[in-house]
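Figure S4 source data
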Amino acid sequence: MNIEKYTFDSIPDAERTAEETVTEFVIVYNRWAKECHNLIVDDREKLNELTPQGSVARETLKEIYKKYCTSKNRQYHRTGTGYFFYGGTYKGGTAIESCTELYKNEVMIQTEKIKNFSPAKRYLVVKQGQVWKIDGVESLSGNGVWEFDIL
């Protein structure tokens, strides 16, 4: 596993828009998660190789986060827990519903809900230097309230 395997069609960092950052992150993350899932389906013992700190899978995920997300303590996110599947951006939609500028270098991007599959997501994306990075994500709950979610 290496990050190039998942980012082969990536737009160069400084040329990527905020919307493209969200879309690429979801696509790249799901490529990685699908491969991890398939490895475990083929051989359940692979789970013990993929989840420990320092494993190839966890290090690749850290590189994905480094490329698309701001640097901050995400100890309860996937890079800290090793939990690869379900929830968060796993199988999340990439269709952009809206992009709202909050400040000069900060936007909120909302993706569409995938009916019976994935809730709408709202990504906070900030510009660091010339590069847009995801700072956080929320999911729209069934009762219409935005709630913190994991990337």
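Figure S5 source data
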Amino acid sequence: MVAQGSWGKYSPPKPSPAQYYTLVTVLIAYSLLMGRQAGLQPTGEWRLFSWHPFLMTCGMVGFAGLGAVTKKLGGYANTKTHGILGWLSLFCSFGGIYCIYRNKENNGYLHLSSPHAMVGTGVVISCVGLGLAGSIFLHPDFGMDKQNKTIRFAHKTASRLTLMLAWVTAFLGLFGIAAENTLLLAAYGLPLVALVPFVLM
């Protein structure tokens, strides 16, 4: 909780080295394994479409999650690494967007025709805006207002809310193509719920 007049002063406790490396391992393993499983739906075959859920999971859960956890460590080097991971998450997601765009073009499907697509687009646009704001205002080397606690708090809060929405959107996308696969939905969704307090809080 942030007391009146202290915007940006609240910081969650830093993860211990053991907690940090456990989260790193879990985020990487989850992104690769569950991204692949999502990519195999619903046919069980890898195809152009498969790269969309794989790259979006790696981007929005893997790289973005690692960036959020790394920022919690604090310090100059971790702040820069956080920014690099954030942009890597976007580049990975751009690849996923390109794949779904090409897949729809190849098959004559409409673009932005589902809530998943529209919310996902909004999430990516938000991530671009947050990345630009972080780079311009908060970069530890050349940020225009890097000591401004209000901007830092707003950036942190908006980023975590955006990532939470990204995770929900990813789950809804999987639900749309594998609604009857309860085991897969649980394997994809429950770890995300469990990670929220450690990554996004």
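Confidence is low (pLDDT under 50) at residues 1-8. The two ends are 11 Å apart (CA to CA).
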